[in-house]
Design brief:
Number of strands: 7
Strand content: 25-35%
Distance between the termini: 27 Å
Largest sheet: 5 strands, antiparallel
Order of helices and strands: HEEEEEEEHH
CATH topology: Peptide Deformylase
CATH class: Alpha Beta
Oligomer: single chain
Strand order of the largest sheet: 1-2-3-6-7
Length: 174
């Protein structure tokens, strides 16, 4: 397993639409393992393959709390349907938009179909934080970031903030 670089805004790769996966094989499982390791190293709860520069429809997630045992989840070619009419606001953040958080409204319940780590077909109802996280990560697969839901001014400020943080990191590393 390897920790991969997480792309940050304004990297244009993050705006690409991810492509479906043909099959779940050892190469894909290696990608998912790397993604999970990368997500854990960055203290995240979800990561889409496009965030590590791989435009495939793959998501990893772990919503276990810091005091709980890890509960990794893998979603290959996920499809969302039947969102609830009830929207709930949640404060969201993103590993590709570090240090930026804002409230986003999303359906609080949604149906999801996907292939798991072993290529098995699965479906379930996502609710609460799981629903928020899967919708957030699904947006990545469509080239959408959570800041795209914000006003133009807030979005511009977010990108500037990330650029400043990244520049500071680069300066510190030099």
């Amino acid at each position: 397993m390897a920790i991969r670089e997480i792309l940050t805004v304004p990297d244009p790769i993050l705006k690409e639409v991810s492509q479906p996966v043909d099959q779940v094989d050892d190469d894909l499982r290696e990608l998912m393992d790397d993604m999970l390791q990368t997500m854990y190293a960055a203290d995240g709860i979800g990561l889409a393959a496009i965030q590590v520069g791989v435009p495939k429809r793959v998501i990893v997630m772990d919503l276990a709390g810091s005091d709980e045992e890890a509960k990794p989840r893998y979603f290959v070619n996920p499809v969302l349907s039947d969102p609830s009419d009830t929207l709930k606001p949640y404060e969201e953040g993103c590993l590709s938009v570090p240090t930026v958080y804002d409230e986003i409204e999303r359906p609080d319940r949604i149906h999801i179909q996907y292939l798991d780590y072993d290529g098995n077909e699965c479906e379930e109802i996502a609710e609460g934080m799981f629903a928020v996280c899967i919708q957030h990560e699904m947006d990545h697969l469509e080239g959408v970031l959570f800041i795209d839901y914000l006003s133009r001014l807030k979005r511009q400020r977010a990108v500037q903030k990330v650029k400043k943080v990244e520049k500071s990191k680069d300066r510190d590393a030099a």
